[in-house]
Design goal:
The complex is a heterodimer of chains A (about 130) and B (about 150).
Chain A lengths: L1 H43 L6 E5 L2 E3 L2 E4 L3 E7 L8 E2 L15 E6 L3 E6 L7 E6 L1
Parallel strand pairs in A: 1-4, 3-8
Antiparallel strand pairs in A: 1-2, 4-6, 5-7, 7-8
Chain B lengths: L5 H5 L4 H6 L1 H20 L2 H33 L6 H29 L7 H25 L6
The chains are: A alpha/beta (about 130), B mainly alpha (about 150).
Chain lengths: ~130, ~150
């Protein structure tokens, strides 16, 4: 009887250690997956960047200030297709961009250019050319 | 945008497809549930309810497919589709055709003297349910409902 109790307590200790270890590993993996995107976004939001990333159903940066003659490239990092279409539907219009596909446009004239994703009209962005 | 302006509401990008699609999905699911309930309980009223659910679901597939195709033409100017968009289109069309076939089997069986639904129809309904579920999943994924605000 005593032996079985001792065995049970040892099993409980082993199980407890295993559960704690699994929880710690899970926490670490979750923390790394949560922290990674923010560091990526911070790097992409450097002033003067000419790359707009499409991720998580939004354009980042949402507003970009650039000098005239700059080429802006949009990269789709989402798992679903997106488009980049100017508000007037004429100035620039990309085809449906799949994951990691790019679209570029050179802004020659100063002004404010608003654009959106035609598949998801709530996704909007703005380019200010000075 | 004024929500009570009919013109604005009808021309609101391609929102109609996203709104209308819920009707055939729900009607089809309820129709399948009624059919299985009718099979187990042997109550003809449940089979009748299933028939009418499939009837309205089949009717709704027409505007749903039409608005989906219009969205493709208007928003993507009919460009050649690939990836999830193509899968959603193909599965959507197959699902719609299958819903209409299920309705037709019901229609035929109700006109027959025995008025008994063939057993293969229940299996077909399960296939339709799976197709509709995958199509709806892809549609939801495309619209971004899985993305947190």
């Amino acid at each position: 009887m005593r032996r079985s109790i001792a065995q049970q307590s040892r099993t409980a200790r082993v199980l407890g250690t295993a559960i704690l270890g699994a929880a710690a590993a899970l926490s670490l993996s979750l923390a790394s997956s949560v922290l990674r995107p923010s560091s990526v976004i911070a790097a992409q939001e450097k002033p003067g960047a000419t790359v707009v990333t499409i991720d998580n159903f939004s354009f980042a940066p949402m507003q970009l200030e650039i000098p005239a003659g700059t080429e802006v490239t949009w990269i789709n990092k989402d798992d679903v297709p997106h488009t980049v279409v100017s508000d007037d539907h004429k100035l620039f219009k990309s085809r449906a961009l799949d994951t990691d596909e790019k679209f570029s446009f050179t802004f020659k004239d100063p002004g404010t250019y608003e654009y959106f994703c035609s598949v998801h009209p709530k996704m909007v962005g703005k380019i200010v050319v000075k | 945008m004024n929500p009570f302006n009919i013109r604005e509401a009808l021309l609101a990008k391609h929102a109609q497809h996203v709104v209308l699609i819920h009707f055939p999905i729900a009607l089809c699911m309820v129709g399948v549930a009624f059919d299985f309930a009718a099979y187990w309980t042997k109550r003809s009223a449940l089979a009748t309810a299933a028939y009418y659910n499939f009837t309205v679901a089949a009717i709704f597939t027409v505007p749903v497919v039409a608005t989906g195709l219009l969205a493709w033409q208007f928003q993507l100017e009919g460009e050649k589709l690939k990836g999830i968009l193509l899968q959603h289109l193909v599965l959507g069309v197959i699902s719609s055709v299958m819903i209409c076939i299920v309705w037709y089997v019901h229609f035929r069986s109700r006109r027959a003297l025995e008025q008994r639904l063939p057993r293969y129809c229940l299996a077909m309904e399960l296939v339709v349910m799976a197709l509709v579920a995958v199509t709806a999943h892809l549609g939801g994924y495309l619209t971004g409902v899985n993305v947190s605000a």
